[in-house]
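Appendix B, example 12.
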Amino acid sequence: MSKTYRIACIPGDGIGPEVTRQARKALDVAANRFGFSLDWQDYPFGAAHYLRTGEIFPESALEEMGGCDALLLGAIGDPRVKPGELERGILLTLRFRFDQYVNLRPALSFPRVPLPVPLPEGRRLDTVVVRENTEDLYMGLGGRAEGGSLSFSVDARRAPYELKGELALWTTPPCPLAAQVAVSTRPGVERIARYACELAVRRGEDRVTLVTKANAVPHLYGFFEDETARVAAQYPGLKLEKENVDACCYHLVRRPDAFGVLLCPNLFGDIVSDLLAGLSGGMGMAAGGNIGDGLSMFEPVHGSAPDIAGTGRANPLAAILSGELLLRHLGEHEAADAVGGAVTAYLEESDPEGLPFELGGTSPVERSGDEVASRIAG
């Protein structure tokens, strides 16, 4: 009997529904070819739903999604809604509720996709950022004060622990101030370091590069270094290398293919992964996954692009490649290989006009999705 996976889907805002439709098409074709099925569970959350109902993300939907095998997300964000309102209410809610502690961001070079920094002959870009996704400055701990005195409570929950406390700060003489607290814990660092090491082993590599800044921020990132070194020592034959984040960015723009697995604290991973997206051909080719031990979420990282929504100019390849990550997460590796191979074949075989607008062609989003799906079918 074939296996059925329940997949939650939030198409979201802007071009989200357009690119998600093409990703679903590709995944359904792959599922049919390799003998399993996808039971799509659709959810309406995003700007239109919020403006119509005032509801961002009800608890009942979170409970339902917890029973799914994965989540495909299109894009979140709309100029009619205050910046951050939907992103915090949907994206961060999902990441923290389901403890998606890995943000996975592959950066690959593809045929016919121009790179801003050309690679040496015979070389290709195949780097992956493993970003810690639940700690560091992104825990939302902080505040602002106009009168020189600031205090706030700390109350954060992650799967391995609860963090509680009080912080009080003041200036003499009084002046406006702001504070944002960054936290790293042994359980938090240990699990992301282990994920990075195991990924490097699966990729057949002999090193993991930790992106750090312990020379300037010794308590926070020195701790991250120490805990990562303790984990990496458990993997014989795997070397842990360290690069300060500024030096790492410098090396990337000179030799984008210089690294394999990059392990990053949350803040640095956010920055470095977008740099690599630019170096590998643009956001329209950038897939992403938010992975944990429960529900994991897969999404293109290009945002909702409301300026081109409805024009047919959206590039669906990042969404389709995010679907490839989703299939790999489910353990359907043959199907995932077929999806990734179909994207490569489409780019290799199409005439220039047949490529997405972002890549210099004139292919509407639907046609690009059809081209990929036909190659998955075989």
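The radius of gyration is 21 Å. Residues 139-181 form one domain.
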